[in-house]
Design goal:
336 residues, alpha/beta, 12 strands, 51% helix, 15% strand
């Protein structure tokens, strides 16, 4: 969690730069100007007077994924503060995601934020962005490939470490047999999560591959798995939208398996409170979006790079029923 604090300090650094800019000039009016800048940011106006740069984020998200709504909320908030025009595109298919990145390059954006869930499909287009002089930050997935591809830094959680944390938590809960539900084949981050769980979990872990774009199919596949193996006492989903579906599958199968999930949203926070979910792994998606835009702004403004060649970690954090009440308010407003 030390790296999470580093990311938070980066926000403070940005605010310090903004205030320093506001204070430039006549010292007798500096404090008043700083207050005016803060008021503008609070009203949805830029807190800095740097050029109106355009930053684009291109992710591997499918349609209707609430996780990426939270990422965008963070990115948009930082964009307002930093006087940035923010563009967003997404596609679950690696080749189509790469095409979206190429379209942003063709628009001559000033900075790019990309995910590397399917790195092979993204390698060439990230190289094209570099050759075009466009700085790139990777976010969420692809921490191992980020530096090799020439990105300034990577912001997210280490997926293997996150998986290991889940395995440890399952052990502490006395679980013996678990299923890890992978909803997007070819996503290296998902494979790393389940591999991490397997590494530390003392029980038996099985992977179940489902088609994440077909939620009824996800439910029926998991339901069949739970019906065929009554010894399964834990189910781990890899995204918040899949947790309620897993709960329904367990109910229909008559299974007493505990449902746990990666990621947090309003429904997950509520389910943690009522006990229908055991725990969640939060990687702070709002912070990922916010920091990505903010760090691109810092690079354009002051040639700053955070991380020292290593990923800037935003997780994992295990969230239980005890934590959920405090975070529910933030989840409701779309920031956790």
């Amino acid at each position: 969690m030390a790296r999470v604090r580093t990311g938070v300090r980066a926000v403070s650094a940005v605010l310090a730069v903004a205030l320093a800019t506001a204070l430039a000039g006549c010292s007798s009016t500096g404090g008043k100007r700083a207050e005016e800048r803060a008021a503008k940011a609070a009203q949805g106006r830029a807190a800095v007077d740097t050029p109106r740069w355009t930053f684009a984020m291109v992710t591997h998200s499918g349609d209707g994924d609430t996780f990426w709504d939270i990422v965008q909320n963070g990115a948009k908030q930082a964009a307002v503060k930093d006087n940035i025009k923010f563009l967003y595109a997404h596609d679950v298919e690696g080749n189509k995601q790469a095409q979206n990145v190429q379209a942003m390059i063709d628009q001559k954006v000033d900075g790019l934020i990309v995910t590397l869930a399917k790195p092979d499909a993204m390698k060439d287009v990230v190289e094209k962005a570099k050759k075009a002089g466009i700085p790139v930050i990777t976010v969420n997935s692809g921490s191992e490939e980020s530096k090799k591809f020439g990105a300034l830094t990577h912001i997210g959680q280490d997926e293997t470490i996150a998986g290991e944390a889940v395995g440890d938590e399952l052990n502490s809960r006395g679980k013996k047999k678990a299923v890890c539900v992978l909803h997007e084949q070819g996503n290296v981050g998902h494979e790393q999560r389940c591999a991490g769980v397997k590494k530390t979990f003392k029980g038996d872990l099985q992977n179940l591959y489902v088609e994440g774009t077909n939620m009824p199919g996800v439910q029926s596949s998991l339901e069949a798995k739970l019906q065929s193996d009554r010894d399964i006492d834990a189910v781990v989903t890899l995204g918040a939208p899949f947790a309620p579906t897993a709960v329904k599958a367990a109910e229909q199968a008559g299974s007493k398996a505990e449902i746990d999930t990666f990621d947090l949203n309003e429904k997950v926070a509520t389910a943690l409170q009522d006990g229908s979910l055991g725990f969640a792994v939060d990687q702070q998606p709002y912070l990922q979006g916010y920091e990505a835009v903010d760090l691109l702004w810092l690079y354009k403004y002051n040639a700053d790079v955070l991380g020292g060649g290593r990923p800037v970690l935003t997780g994992p954090q295990i969230i239980t029923k005890d934590d959920a009440k405090e975070l529910a308010e933030y989840a409701k407003r779309g920031t956790r």
